[in-house]
Design brief:
single chain; alpha/beta; seven-stranded mixed β-sheet; five-stranded antiparallel β-sheet; binds pyridoxal-5'-phosphate
């Protein structure tokens, strides 16, 4: 019980509701990815569009989309109403039944997928979507091992953390998932000493092919890859890379799974990031943007070849809340609204005309910015101590005062920015307006002066 809610003598100091929330949180909520004692979470009282308000009534422009999921912005009235209507009609129903919200959500998701990918298996989020995609691939091929990239993230469950390829795996890796990692292309910090995108692409494909040959191609069920890696650095692959991966998968009978949990549903200025690369994987996983996280939802879009494996054979897998009606109603309203309001087109135009050019202008001005990359509303600034050596402004897997002070400067001026180690990820909602982008860039400009002082 919070001290302020106990009975007793009257003259107790007045404690704000925000303070009560904060204290109760600190007493009882165990937060993810955090040392609990040093954590100072913001109290968020309300949100709308691209903005949030804290417990003191201060407003912030949200360049994080939270964990990169509020693609449609906060509190979109049409999505809120759809959830309310669904709740009044049918809050929940087991996955075995047919239900209008679930059926319509699956139809709309399949509609934005490449041709021939018509079936949708629903999950509660991204990690379980990847788990099920891999399970489908294993059952389809009768093989076990899974290829995935370094500099990737596929979720925090026991299997998906093993498939992930950054420091978050190290501490949780019990080596049990048959995961084999490869280097995907990333010219700015090339593992292949490449000088051009084309070289990087060719060398990365040669490396993948040789890795598979030496590991034993017959062992691999699946290759799991983020179409555009997100939390590991927002690294759009060079033209031809994903088509090359598709060819390699076909050559060795490996199921190609594209993880679009972060990149999907408008984030890159296309419905799905695969649309930029003209490639059709066997399976696509999604979550976050499908309904902007208003109610947890994820899933696997299944191509015909894999789907038909289970025509007469039981798919041994499922989740109690698979295709939850509230989540599906939110997805239907989100996708329809994104269509009606041209939100995907907005994300593309913002990236092309305002955010991309604005971030490049900041890079020209600030020595701490070593690289700018991205598209749509999906951008990263690589912050460095020295542009020549590319020494990161924080160590891999950690943070530094330089990064902490830069983020604090942005926050003090009303801008929330997400960092991963030495990088700032600039990932506002897809609905953001040019004026809001300019407002955020002006605050970022001042914050980068702080980063510059550490170069
Ligand atoms: N895959 C990718 C590419 C992600 O970015 C994430 C989360 O950020 C996940 C999977 C895991 O999703 P969830 O946290 O919903 O399990």
């Amino acid at each position: 019980m919070h001290p302020s809610t106990r009975g007793g003598p009257v003259a107790a100091p007045v404690i704000s509701t925000a303070q009560v929330t904060y204290d109760t949180d600190r007493a009882h909520v165990f937060h993810s990815w955090s040392a609990q004692k040093s954590l100072r979470p913001m109290v968020i009282e309300r949100s709308e569009g691209c903005r949030l308000w804290d417990g003191d009534g201060r407003s912030y422009l949200d360049f994080t989309s939270q964990l990169v999921f509020t693609n449609i912005g906060h509190q979109h009235p049409r999505v809120v109403a759809a959830i309310q209507e669904q709740a009044a009609k049918l809050c929940t129903i087991a996955p075995a039944h047919a239900n209008d919200a679930r059926a319509e959500a699956a139809r709309l998701v399949a509609e934005v997928a490449p041709d021939g990918m018509d079936k949708v298996f629903f999950t509660n989020g991204g990690a379980d979507a990847n788990e099920h995609a891999v399970r489908m691939a294993r059952l389809h091929t009768g093989r076990y091992k899974v290829l995935s990239a370094f500099r990737s993230y596929h979720g925090a469950t026991a299997e998906t953390i093993n498939f992930s390829g950054d420091h978050r795996r190290w501490i949780n890796d019990y080596g049990s998932a048959g995961a084999v990692h490869f280097h995907a292309p990333f010219l700015y910090r090339s593992e292949f000493h490449s000088e051009t995108e084309q070289q990087e692409c060719e060398r990365a494909l040669e490396h993948l092919d040789s890795l598979i040959r030496f590991e034993g191609p017959q062992a691999f069920a699946a290759l799991l890859i983020e179409t555009i890696p997100g939390t590991s650095g927002i690294m759009p692959p060079p033209p031809g890379y994903l088509a090359g991966v598709r060819e390699i998968c076909d050559r060795y009978g490996i199921v190609m799974i594209c993880d679009e949990v972060m990149a999907g549903f408008g984030r890159t200025g296309a419905w799905l990031a695969v649309d930029h690369y003209d490639v059709t994987p066997d399976l696509i996983t999604f979550a976050k943007g499908v309904n902007s996280g208003y109610v947890p939802l994820g899933g696997v879009i299944i191509g015909e070849r894999i789907a038909s494996t289970f025509d007469d054979r039981v798919y041994q897998g499922g989740l109690t809340y698979s295709g939850h009606p509230l989540a599906c109603a939110a997805a239907v309203a989100t996708i329809e609204t994104m269509r009606d309001e041209g939100i995907v087109e907005n994300a593309a135009a913002i990236g092309r005309d305002v955010l991309g050019p604005g971030l490049r202008a900041l890079a020209d001005k600030h020595p701490s910015v070593g690289d700018v990359r991205g598209l749509g509303v999906f951008w990263a600034l690589d912050l460095v101590r020295d542009r020549e050596t590319k020494e990161p402004l924080a160590p891999y897997g950690g943070t530094s005062p330089a990064i902490g002070e830069t983020l604090a400067a942005a926050k003090d001026n009303g801008l929330l920015v997400f960092n991963q180690y030495h990088r700032l990820h600039i990932v506002p909602p897809c609905i953001i307006t040019p004026d809001e982008v300019r407002e955020g860039l002006a605050i970022l400009d001042a914050a980068l002066d702080v980063a510059d002082s550490h170069t």
